Amino acid sequence: MFRTNLMRILGRGLAAGLFWFSVGLAAADLQAAQVLEVKGSAAIYNQQGMARAALKGGSVLGEEVVETGQGSKLTLALDDGSRLELGPNTRLKLNDQETSDTISVFLFIGRLLAHISPMKSEEPVFSVQTLTTTAGVRGTDFEAAAGMDGGSLVSVESGAVELAMDGGQELLKSGEQAEVSYDGKLKKGQRKPMTDQQWQKWFQAREQFFIEHSDQVLNVLTRRIERSRALIAEQDRKMASQKKILAALYEQGKLTPEQLRLEAAKQIKVYMKLLNNLSQADNTLLAVNYIVNNISEQVKLNPDRFTPECKKQIASTLNKLQKMNVPALYQQDRKIIALHFAGIMKTAEKWGLEGEVWRNLPAKTRQRMLQKWQEQKQGGQEGEPGPKGAKQPLKRPAKARENK
After folding, report:
1. Distance (Å) of CA 100 to CA 63, 84, 105, 381, 385
2. Which end of the chain has less Cβ packing within 10 Å, N or C?
3. What domains lie within the chain, and their CATH numbers?
């Protein structure tokens, strides 16, 4: 009942006011997944917070959120044939594919069963992020869950999962699982498949822990906000530094054109990793805001469940978040991401490396991204939008100065 009320509360009002801001990136209006099956009720929220019913065959775009209701389930299909099965009372955001080096989602709350198609790659091609973990895979069947206290659980049915947390990394093999507490402590063991009833008890335990240890949980959530802000600033500085390094090498003529092209490819890879880190920090910001606002609304509906001290702590944390103005911070960060991404694409186009930007994405997704970006650059001079309908192929650079 507790989670059901929370999902109902946040379904409309807070979604519009807290999360979604459009920054004009190409992926914002591109399909990230398709609804394969719906059992019960489910909704999709766009970047403006407007909801529409999740219907079989419908599209889910980048940066949109899918939410299932009480007793409901939904299955999404990705471009490479992978499937994501959402359990009841689950809220999942499909991250912007344009500024990510993999297909990734952020699980705010609920559970997800992922069937990821194998793909040849040295790095993970799909990841599920929660407040406490990032699970990266190449081709795996695994389950992930996120509770109201920020704790999470990852269980591997087949394949392997690379689990990243505050305290380091852990490789989970087939038949293993790991539970990570709200403060990042890992408990690893053998996989224990759970029924819907058992999962319900797990979520209830996470909720009760939040209520009984609200001071500890809220302190950790507040620190996560602070770390996210610091990480965002750090990634911004690093990306600016990378641009200066590449520009200096070009201007000084220390590299041949081919050497510079290879260096540009390396820099693009670094850029995309930094952008992905920035996006993850932004998701953490949103997730903490979501949890605190959720619990604050629940206090209003069921005040008897919370002690006076707990109510006071929740109100204090909410006040801090409101002073930070999380929606404005998120909007600002998305603009930073957009600006850095424009720089990445400028470098990629200059050296004919557009394919490197989304090299870990499925071929169908990558082609759609390139086509969309090319349409935006059609006609006119390089870097400037041209008349609608004009066809202008992406240009390789003029010959760079030779090494002297």
Report:
1. 12, 18, 11, 27, 24
2. C
3. 2-212 (2.60.120.1440), 215-376 (no CATH)
User: What is the rounded CA–CA span in Å between residue 78 and residue 34?
Assistant: 7
Amino acid letter at 46? N
Q: How many helices (H) and strands (E) does the chain have?
A: 9, 17
The pLDDT tens digits for 239-288 are: 778 777 767 766 766 677 787 778 778 777 777 777 777 788 888 888 88
What is the C-alpha to C-alpha distance for residues 123 and 137, in angstroms, rounded to an integer?
8
Task: Give yes or no for a contact between 68 and 89, defined as CB atoms under 8 angstroms apart.
Answer: yes
Cβ contact 88:71 at 8 Å: yes
Q: In the chain, which stretches have pLDDT less than 70?
A: 1-29, 98-101, 120-123, 246, 249-250, 252-254, 359-360, 362-364, 376-404
* pTM of structure: 0.79
- For the four alpha carbons of 53, 54, 60 and 65, in that order, the dihedral sign comes to positive
Q: Are 108 and 128 in contact (CB under 8 A)?
A: no
Place of tokens 């609920």: 110
C-alpha span between 285 and 127 (Å, rounded):
18
- Looking at the DSSP bridge assignments, the partners of residue 144 are 112, 154
Q: What pLDDT, on a 0 to 100 scale, did the predictor assign at position 235?
A: 76
Q: Which residue, chain included where needed, has tokens 């720089």? A: 343
Distance, CA of 6 to CA of 236 (rounded, Å)? 34
